[in-house]
Amino acid sequence: MSISLACSSAAVLIGYDMTLIGSIIANVEFVKKFGDYDAKTDTWSLPADEQLVWSVVQYVSAMCGAMGAGYMNDVIGRRAVFCILVACTMVGTIIELFSPDWKVWIVAKLLFGAAMGFMQGTIPAYISELAPSRVRGFLLSLFQFWIMFGAFVAACVLEGTSHVEGPWSWKGTIVSQLGLGVMCLALFIPLVPESPYYLVSKGRLDAAKAALLKMRGSEANYMVEEDLAAIVGLLEHEKLEKGASPSYMECFQGPNLRRTFLACLPMVMQHFLGYPLCGNYLAYFLTLSGMDNSFTITVISMTVAMLAIICAFVLIERVGRRLQYLVGTFAILPLLLCIGILGFVPSSTAVLRGVASLCIIWSFLWYLSVGAVGWTIVGEISSPRLRPKTTSLAATINSLINMGWSIAIPYLVNSERANLGPKTGLVFFAPSLFLAAIAYFVMPETKGKTFEELDALFESRTPARKF
């Protein structure tokens, strides 16, 4: 467990950064540094165009990083990619700290975006290769926990530095990212071995055996030779069928097409089940309902999310991925419908509190199901040979849809634009209903199954509900 905890710890860096950039733009000193001064109104503002450029650059870089991770994991290994992604965040932090203007800040966003892509394209695959099948789901769900923990740490640091005067009111939050990067490396380097699947693919059988012993040598009656032989046999079988070097094209051929679709489906559903509205705009609705303490709002939303993820830990190896995923999905649908209907009721404090309450319930259900289970499915549904590339494709889809909604949602919700407000819930309800129906028919159960068993089930084209 300690190995998987250390392996997934890099997710804290992305959770921290995504929360930081969403909050720091309201810091007066930050706006003075990177914004424009209006002499007529005697005010400083951060142009929306600059914010949009930062956001788009980061997401595009994340997509490129995710696709690149698919190759890098096969060429230089998972450990090297992990260290590179942490290095990207640390260099990006230094650039943010000393940026003279908003244009140089773009370079930092490029690095953070690449790190996000490397992380999403590497860590789920890495953990799935390190974890025993009996606890694989639990350990993969740690990925979402670390993201939320990073967001929570960022909120606490932002609250602490908000009382500081001068530029360190925002620089303090930036500097703290370096500490998180050092923490990740301090956990990772001594604890986490290279993936035995990567080592076997490179013919380094002795190193693969040593990695397996480091991972599972403390288990009673653990037979390392059998485990190693199973990995060798699995990779050799796939190599004989497909050739020496895995490619992205293979992800869309034969049974692998189905596995690629199943890896990408949770990433699509995470967004279309309402995260851009209920996840990102919960604080907005709470503020409109009369709660004006931003830190209290943040603590409420993040506490609910972390509690849900902890519950997901408990359930995922008991009820299985399919049931937990589908129950959460179908429970979210009526919430989106109710939020949308409340948008047609004349606005009042009571209505806005109702919307905020529904968003809190939504948050619990989302993190309990598609939030935590989604990345678990990504990590274990692909074939061992194509796992880095399938995971990278899923991460690319995630960033692409995230970028689209980050541009669309402010236009849909805000009063000076489309002014849909809570009615936006209906925009999510219709596609979510369609996607939920698809998931019901195609999502298999992977709990407790070895990669050899999953390979056999997919190659025999077993229907999802007969897994």
UniProtKB/TrEMBL annotation:
<feature type="transmembrane region" description="Helical">
    <location>
        <begin position="139"/>
        <end position="162"/>
    </location>
</feature>
<keyword id="KW-1133">Transmembrane helix</keyword>
<keyword id="KW-0813">Transport</keyword>
<dbReference type="GO" id="GO:0005351">
    <property type="term" value="F:carbohydrate:proton symporter activity"/>
</dbReference>
<keyword id="KW-0472">Membrane</keyword>
<feature type="domain" description="Major facilitator superfamily (MFS) profile">
    <location>
        <begin position="3"/>
        <end position="447"/>
    </location>
</feature>
<feature type="transmembrane region" description="Helical">
    <location>
        <begin position="323"/>
        <end position="345"/>
    </location>
</feature>
<feature type="transmembrane region" description="Helical">
    <location>
        <begin position="425"/>
        <end position="443"/>
    </location>
</feature>
<protein>
    <recommendedName>
        <fullName>Major facilitator superfamily (MFS) profile domain-containing protein</fullName>
    </recommendedName>
</protein>
<keyword id="KW-0812">Transmembrane</keyword>
<feature type="transmembrane region" description="Helical">
    <location>
        <begin position="52"/>
        <end position="73"/>
    </location>
</feature>
<feature type="transmembrane region" description="Helical">
    <location>
        <begin position="104"/>
        <end position="127"/>
    </location>
</feature>
<dbReference type="GO" id="GO:0016020">
    <property type="term" value="C:membrane"/>
</dbReference>
<feature type="transmembrane region" description="Helical">
    <location>
        <begin position="80"/>
        <end position="98"/>
    </location>
</feature>
<dbReference type="InterPro" id="IPR005828">
    <property type="entry name" value="MFS_sugar_transport-like"/>
</dbReference>
<feature type="transmembrane region" description="Helical">
    <location>
        <begin position="261"/>
        <end position="283"/>
    </location>
</feature>
<comment type="similarity">
    <text>Belongs to the major facilitator superfamily. Sugar transporter (TC 2.A.1.1) family.</text>
</comment>
<dbReference type="InterPro" id="IPR003663">
    <property type="entry name" value="Sugar/inositol_transpt"/>
</dbReference>
<feature type="transmembrane region" description="Helical">
    <location>
        <begin position="390"/>
        <end position="413"/>
    </location>
</feature>
<dbReference type="InterPro" id="IPR050360">
    <property type="entry name" value="MFS_Sugar_Transporters"/>
</dbReference>
<feature type="transmembrane region" description="Helical">
    <location>
        <begin position="295"/>
        <end position="316"/>
    </location>
</feature>
<dbReference type="InterPro" id="IPR005829">
    <property type="entry name" value="Sugar_transporter_CS"/>
</dbReference>
<dbReference type="Pfam" id="PF00083">
    <property type="entry name" value="Sugar_tr"/>
</dbReference>
<dbReference type="InterPro" id="IPR036259">
    <property type="entry name" value="MFS_trans_sf"/>
</dbReference>
<feature type="transmembrane region" description="Helical">
    <location>
        <begin position="174"/>
        <end position="192"/>
    </location>
</feature>
<feature type="transmembrane region" description="Helical">
    <location>
        <begin position="351"/>
        <end position="378"/>
    </location>
</feature>
<dbReference type="InterPro" id="IPR020846">
    <property type="entry name" value="MFS_dom"/>
</dbReference>
